[in-house]
Amino acid sequence: MRATGLTTAGIGIALGLGLLAGTAGAQTAPTRDDIVGKLNHFEEAAEVDIPALKQQVMERAKARIKNDPGPVNRPPIAPDLAKLPAFNAQIQFDADTPIIQPDSYQTVGRLADALVHASLLPYTFLIVGHVESNAKTREANAILSQRRADAIRDVLVNTFKISTKRLQPIGLGEEQFLDRAKPTSAVNGQLQILTFAKVPEEQPAHPAAAPAPATKKPAKKH
Fold this sequence. Notes:
Elements: H1 8-16, H2 20-23, H3 32-39, H4 50-62, E1 86-89, H5 105-115, E2 123-130, H6 138-158, E3 167-173, E4 191-198
Parallel strand pairs: 2-3
Antiparallel strand pairs: 1-4, 2-4
């Protein structure tokens, strides 16, 4: 049962998303406990270099490969991510933009509420953007997926005050479909939250060494 006290994110939902009253019901939002249940069974971090992965996504998306196997057979670019606890969120954006539609505000708020749950506070998370295969180029879709992941990160940080140190956005575009058998399915446009690693422990500050006592000079003899 949810505690009676409001979390920081819960207060943000109440204050920052007042227009939900008019849009509630248009999209069924997951509960906080649904999200926590998917994300709180972390075992070990995946060995994935996120800055390097971003570069690899763009390089592969821009490449003109004659022997490209096509979207159905294209291998995932970061298969190790599949080993991490994941929650797939149905976030609606305006077409070809990173602008979140009002119907999805409640889902973003529930994500924030889950991330400040006591069982998830020790962890960092990936915000992974995907795009289904469409008429646009893979490069354009890679860029769009990154902008959408960035947009979710910005809302979580700026509206719900989630620490930016706990969130890393990454757009995979068409380079890692959620349903490879159906690359044009809307499922492949879902956004993922992955439990990525434990928050690094802060090292205790070392007290400054006390200055050495001044050496007294021997008094001069007269």
